[in-house]
Amino acid sequence: MSTSTNTTGNTITYILVYVDDIIVTGNDNHRIQTVLHSFAARFSIKGPVDLHYFLGIQVTRTDSGVRLSQQKYINDRLYKANMTDAKPIATPLPTTPKLKLDSASPLQDATQYRSVVGSLQYLAFTRPDISYAVGRFSQFMHKPTGDHWQAAKRVLRYLSGTRSHVIFLHKKTPLTLHAFSDADWAGDTDDYVSTNGYIIYLGQNPISWSSNK
C-alpha cells in the first residue's frame, strides 16, 4: 500500500494506491477532479466512481457517516471452510484454558489451518474484536495442533453469528484522540512473554488497533 498526502492551505488530498486499485479523496472536489484528470492523461484508467469496494472491504455511505464491512469476505471464508451453517458462538476465544505450543498432537496437514489464519489476519482490518485471537493463532503457524485448529474454527463460528458487525466512521465527531490499552504481563506460560493490546479513537471513530505478544 502506497499513500500520498498533499496539503495546500486548508485543502487536503489523499491518494492510496495498491497495485491497480486507487482511492483519491479529500476535502475539495475540484482538487480531486484535477488529480483524476492528471492520472487519466498519463494512464489508462476507468472512469471515476464512488467508492464501494476496496481490497475486499465494502464501503457504504450514509447521511451520518461511512460503514466499512467485510461481510462478503466472511461468507466466502465460511463457505471455503465448509462452515456456512456453523452454529454461532458468543465469543472468539474462551478465557481458559490458554492455548499452548504443545497442546494436543500436531496436525498431519496444517494447510487449512494456515489458510484460515491468513484470512483472519486480513479480516482483522475491520474486526478489532478478533485481533487477540488472530495474534495467538499466528504464533502456532510453524506447528499447529488439533487444539489450535479447534480454536480457529471457534472464531469462524463466532464470525458466523457476527457477520453484520462493521466499523462505522461518524461524519460528525469531536476531533479528540483517546485510547484504551491493556497488557497480560508474562501471561504466556510457554515463555512468559507479555501480550499487550490497544485501540485508538478519533472522537467516536476507531482508527488504529493491535494485539501483540
Class computed from helices, strands and strand pairing? alpha+beta
User: Low-confidence spans: pLDDT under 50, at least 5 residues?
Assistant: none
Helix content: 25-40%
* Radius of gyration based on Cα positions: 20 Å
Strand order of the largest sheet: 4-5-6-7
**What are the secondary-structure elements, in order, as H or E?**
EEEHEEEHHHHEEEE
- What's the end-to-end separation, in Å? 25 Å
Provide the residue-averaged pLDDT.
Answer: 92
Task: Describe the protein.
- By secondary structure, the protein is α+β, with helices and mostly antiparallel strands.
- It has three domains: 2-49, no CATH class; 84-161, no CATH class; 174-212, no CATH class.
- It has helices spanning 29-42, 71-80, 111-123, 131-138, 146-161; strands spanning 2-8, 11-18, 21-26, 53-54, 57-62, 65-69, 167-170, 177-184, 195-202, 205-212.
- The chain has a four-stranded antiparallel β-sheet with strand order 4-5-6-7.
- A hairpin with a 2-residue loop joins β9 (195-202) and β10 (205-212).
- α3 runs antiparallel to α4 (131-138).
- The longest helix has 16 residues, at 146-161.
- The radius of gyration is 20 Å and the shape is elongated.
- The mean pLDDT is 92.
